[in-house]
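pls ignore typos typing on phone
2-acetamido-2-deoxy-beta-D-glucopyranose + seq
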Amino acid sequence: MSCIVLVLVMAIFSGFNGTEASRAFFVFGDSLVDNGNNNFLATTARADAPPYGIDFPTRRPTGRFSNGLNIPDFISQELGADPTLPYLSPELDGQNLLVGANFASAGIGILNDTGIQFVNIIRIFRQLDYFEQYQQRVNALIGAEKTKQLVNGALVLITCGGNDFVNNYYLVPNSARSRQYALPVYVNYLIFEYAKILRRLYDLGARRVLVTGTGPLGCVPAELALRSRNGECSEELQRAASLFNPQLVDLIQQLNNQLGSDVFIAANTQLMHNDFITDPQAYGFVTSKVACCGQGPYNGIGLCTVASNLCPNRDAYAFWDPFHPSEKANKLIVQQIMTGSTKYMNPMNLSTILALDSRN
Ligand SMILES: *[C@@H]1O[C@H](CO)[C@@H](O)[C@H](O)[C@H]1NC(C)=O
Ligand SMILES: *[C@@H]1O[C@H](CO)[C@@H](O)[C@H](O)[C@H]1NC(C)=O
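k done
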C-alpha cells in the first residue's frame, strides 16, 4: 500500500516538473568538451575520422576527441538527459533546443590568440554570443519567461585554459606570449581574463556552473614525447598547471562571495588525473603514460589517425590520444565530479548540487 502511495507521489512530482524532463545543460570550452562543433568549420582541429569514435554507440567518429563518450556525455547521463548537440548542428532545432546545447570548440582558450594555428574555431567570446543567440531562438519557441527559467535552472560546464599553455605560451620556443610575460604574470593575466568570461556567463543567466581546471599538462603523452627524457612529467608545464589551478579556485570563491551564492563550482581535474598518473593500476589502467592511439615515443607524436598505432583495449589506457583522456578516464572523472570530496569539488560535488536544486 505505502509503496503504491510513494509511486503515485513520485509520479505527481515528476509531473510537476512539467515540460522539461530534466534540467537543460550547456557546455562551453575546448576539445575536452567539444561534441562536434568543429566538424562544421574549416579547421584542422577536428576528430571526424576513424579511429575517433571507435567505442561510441554508433562506432563512428562524431567530432568528440575520445574513443567513445566524453565528459559532457557522462554528465548528461547523470542528468538523465540526451547528450548535448553541437550548437552548429542542424539537428539542434525545435524541441531539441530544450535539452541545452554544446558551444565548445576544439583548440580555443581563454585568450583570442590561443589556437590561431587552427584558424576557424569558435573562440570563447563567440561561444557566449552564440549562447545569447540560442536564448533568442528558445524565446521564440517557448516565450521569455520559460526561457529564463530554463537558463537559470540549467547546469553549465566550462572547460578552458589548457590550450592557453600548450597551444600558445609553450607552442613554440620563445613564443610571443612567453617573451611578453614571465609564467606567473601570464597566469595572472589568464585568470583576470577568465573572470570576465565567468561574469558574462552569469550575466547571460547561468546559475550553476562547473568550472574545470586544467589537467596535469606536463604529463600528457604529447608532452612526454616532446620534453621528457625518462618518462617523468615536464616540470615547466606542471608548474603552469600548479600556478593556474589554485588561482582559478580562488577566483571562483571570490566570484561566489561577490554574488552571495555558490554559482561557480571548481572541479579539480588536475588532482583527478593525478590519481591515474600516480597509480594507474588502481583505476584499471595498464598505463597512464602511453596514448592508446598515436605514434612515436609514448604514442605522443602528431595526431591520432587510421595510420597510427591503436591499442586493442581502450579501457586499459588513461589517454586515448596524445592529449585527451580515454572514455574510461572521462567516466572516472565524472564519477569524481559527482561524488568527490571537497578536495576534488569546491564548494561541493555535483550530487549535492542536484539534491539542493531539486528542492527549489
Ligand atoms: C577577445 O575578443 C573579444 C571580441 O572581439 C573581445 O571583446 C575581448 O576583449 C578579447 N579578449 C582579449 C583578452 O583580448
Ligand atoms: C558529496 O560531497 C559531500 C560533502 O563533501 C559528501 O558528504 C558526500 O559523501 C559526497 N558524495 C555524495 C554522493 O554526496
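The pocket of 2-acetamido-2-deoxy-beta-D-glucopyranose (ligand 2) is lined by residues 339, 341-342, 348-349, 351-352 (CB under 6 Å). The radius of gyration is 20 Å. more later
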